[in-house]
Amino acid sequence: VGELVGYIDDLYDDFDLTVRYNNSTDHVNAIINEGEGSPADVFYSVNAGSLGALADAGRTQALPDDVAGKVREEFRTEQWVGTSGRARTIPYNTEAFSEEDIPDDIMAFPEEFEGDLGWAPSYGSAQAFITAMRILEGEDATRDWLEAMVERGAATYPDEFRTCQEIADGEIDAAFTNHYYIQRVLDGNPEAPIATAFTEGDAGAVFNVAGAAVIDTASDADLASNFVRHLLSAEAQDYFARSTFEYPLIPDVEPIGDLPTIDELDVPDIDLSQLSNLEPTIDLMRDAGVQI
């Protein structure tokens, strides 16, 4: 988001942004530990779990209704609001399989899919996906699924963009990734033999969001809220869609690529804030023999 943040900074003469980049967990811990002396006014995170963790610690304040109300209820609370979204998907090689060949139930993998599978189990989004499975399906069923993936010999990659590249190159047939990695491969090569399939109402169809919150000790809460409001403007949402290939969260801006709208996705009923609890998931993955 650096380009967008820089644009907003330059847009207003009396507005000066100082940005501190780090992973979301470290930022949450820093803001909590800094207490009332925290210099932060706004916290932006790539996942809802970290936003929820900061809110649960009492370090955020309620957003104005006209800010939070710009997006659907499941992508916001009184304390934070989603600014862009990402859907879990099944990318697949179109030269090897058709969409009808891809199971629409995540728990049907790997047994009911005949092709070669890959994934990036050390990647944060993949671990959040397994966390969703643990919440929705239970620990035992998730362990069985993980053990089946290990037994199947699913190829392991360092990140989900590389995973999608391997699908396009024909090294594997399908995988589990965020939707925008497929779009990024196609942006580099529109003829790449890769397409997007979706499961229905399960962990494989989780829709997570990046978002923002105003810190409870913000020096100017109105100014901080206005910054968050700008992240939900049509131009900012168009930036997220065109530059990062994420889902825009306001109704007036459509996603880029051959993708269903958010309303057409069959997403599970899950509290996105729960997806920050990765430690039990990592323990379970290791116990099942997953190398992470």
Explain this structure.
This protein is of the alpha+beta class and 292 residues long. It contains 11 helices and 10 strands. The strands form 2 sheets. Strands 1, 2, 3, 7, 8, 9 and 10 form a 7-stranded antiparallel beta sheet that branches. Strands 5-4-6 form a 3-stranded parallel beta sheet, with helices on one face. Helix 2 runs parallel beside helix 3 (48-56), helix 5 (124-137) crosses helix 6 (139-152) and helix 7 (160-168) packs across helix 8. The protein is globular and about 60 Å long.
**Poorly predicted runs of 5 or more residues:** none
Could you give the distance between the termini?
28 Å
Strand tally is 10
Order of helices and strands: HHEHEHEEHHEHEEHEEHHEH
Q: How can the largest sheet be summarized?
A: 7 strands, antiparallel
Give the fraction of residues assigned to helices: 25-40%
Rg, Cα atoms, Å = 19 Å
CATH superfamily of the largest domain: Periplasmic binding protein-like II
What is the CATH top level name of the largest domain?
A: Alpha Beta
